[in-house]
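Researcher: Here's my situation. A collaborator sent me these components and asked whether they could plausibly form a single complex. I don't have experimental data yet, so a predicted model of the whole assembly would be a useful starting point for our discussion.
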Amino acid sequence: MGAIILFVAMLAVVVVWWLSTQRLTAKPWLEEGPIGEFPGTGALSLPAAKIGLGVFAAVVGALFALIFTAYLMRMQLADWTPLRKPTLLWVNTGVLILSSAGLQWARDASERGDMDGVKAGLLAGGVAAIAFLVGQIMAWQQLVAAGHFVASSPASSFFYLITAMHGLHLLGGVMALGRTIGKVHGHCAADEVRLSVELCAIYWHLLLLVWLFCFSLLLFT
Amino acid sequence: MADTAFGPARAIPPAEVEDVDLYHAKSWVTKYVFSQDAKVIAIQYAVTATAIGLVALVLSWLMRLQLGFPGRFAFIDPSHYLQFITMHGMIMVVYLLTALFLGGFGNYLIPLMVGARDMVFPYLNMLSYWIYLLAVLVLVASFFVPGGPTGAGWTLYPPQAILPNTPGYEWGIILMLASLIIFIIGFTMGGLNYVVTVLQGRTRGMTLMRLPLTVWGIFTATVMALLAFPALFVAAVMMLFDRVLGTSFFMPTIVSMGEQLKYGGGSPIMFQHLFWFFGHPEVYIVALPAFGIVSDLISTHARKNIFGYRMMVWAIVAIGALSFVVWAHHMYVSGMNPSFGYFFATTTLIIAIPTAIKVYNWVLTLWRGDIHLTLPMLFALAFIVTFVNGGLTGLFLGNVVVDVPLSDTMFVVAHFHMVMGVAPILVIFGAIYHWYPKVTGRMLNDSLGKFHFWVTFLGAYAIFFPMHYLGLLGMPRRYHEIGQTTFVPESAQTLNAFISVAALIVGFAQIVFLFNLVWSLFRGKLAGSNPWRSTTLEWQTPETPPGHGNWGKELPVVYRWAYDYGVPGAEQDFVPQDQPPATRAV
């Protein structure tokens, strides 16, 4: 259970840090009146969607930390034999990095107000993300061709589970990206577009990070 | 209370009237069915949870009929009995308590109590309810598939959960796992809403330390649930793989009914770790909202500020954090390194400290309070007594050496029903009697309520007190029929019959409650906007029941904490949170 405990402990540090800025030692029964004296103790001023994405990131993090926990536990049992991973995964990882870079490009462009850059960046990121998903399916096909099915060995079960879980999260992201592309091409306020693009980019970086963790775990074991 | 750190007449920041960016329902369907208003969604959650809860109640009757009068009811064969206990447990814990506290009370109270117009993501909120409903329907469907629902026990331990001779092997277990997965997806959508609304949607002046404890309880429980439910999600997905695709995540090499199964090498203990990493926080996911709500009920109905507000907040946070490092105390007999048992026993006993602080603070709030024995207060008092009872038997079970002989006996059943069955349900009833006037504009009938309270409270003790004794005798849980043993005397059977009769009576008393809910909707006494003379924001809405958008043109501004009851020198014995300091004589 090490991986998940470590993850929860990291979150706990963030939560404790934030709570420590919220005057939890105040004596509210003595403090009457509008509180202007203590900046930062009111509601957060970030957009709700951004905080929501942050919280969701914690949930996704916990989910993958738990899968890693299970992986590391199962790995120690007697019948574990490492799986030969398709080299295609390296290519896919590269494509996912490109995808993330494309969205970062779009994010920077949207901060400059460069709508053409936004459109190009989003499109590049989206195409690369879909290419990554197709690549993952091809990796599955290679495994199947080599005789590694879902139930063939615990390592291959985990391989399918982890890649499927990551792929589904990315697929959800691609849908959100589709809506954002629609917004960019429609008539939406620049602010709203900027936020959507930023959220997509953050989510992509998050999923890239998750994938890098997954990939190194799969690679080294 | 007269001494204030702030001058009474400090300038109030100009009210910024934000553009109201609310979704406005255009038709009856979008107003009452596919509604994005948190208050409507709350009621949808509550009604659905109650409906499925009634199914679980009937299942508990059927179990009790078998235990009390074995052999009398031929249709309850061992398979059915196991199916009843499994579905009763899972429905009560996940689909009733979690959904009602967070989806029901969370949705209704969070936006009102923090002074927001609605949840921050109304569309997601609506989706959350409909996905929850889908999860419930998938679960209900398992009653009608070939082989019936799963009989694996609510903990769904492998390998037996997915072995061919377990009831519900064909479809029941698959639907159960699918339903849990759907539930967790829906819950995550709702949970994001509750957390972000507390973080971002609070009105001006509503600092964290001015939040009512109800919001603290629900907020902390939601954060925990968002981190704990993924463990159940992962466990359910992996077990679904094992059952449907034939993987061996959890399944060891096994011979079933003389036949070597295709599984091999998996670890059932791994499932237990994942399950209880969810399962133990789940206890507090149910308990923390109850703690928060009961604090507010006690303070309001004793007309006294809550004792030790800061301690209460810290205790909630501490319990939330500690509950993630105690899970393996559910696994003392599963085969663990003994020093792990020592560690988990220690953390388990440490969690008693913040919990005890809360109990003392409730009692000290009551001390020399102006206690009104209203229905919410009666239920709150019953909760304190019941929770202490359940908590004390928890100390027994938290110790490895005491737990081992008591494992899988009726003592455990009695313990967890007291602490996370009866106690939270009493709070739910108290909370319904308390907030029903705000939701409907009418009071619930008092006489029917008193009848409901006494039958439920005394009846619950008639059910679960003797059960501790049966457990000490060594009567095992989950057994369809004990048969002849050397250690269970004849008289235990009389006690079992008594428990069953009490269970039937308590169950029927709930029909009185449901009748009261419906009858009062039309015939109840008109409540006015603040019948309990309460300080918190939800009682200060311009309309009762609160309209779409909750507040009038302007959001309320908060000037004080939520517990200004009986303030010396104040005009009334309560000062609402949104009342400016200047308007009362100091």
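Model: Some features of this prediction you could bring to your collaborator: Residues 78-114 of chain B form the longest helix (37 residues). Residues 1-14 of chain B have pLDDT under 50 and may be disordered.
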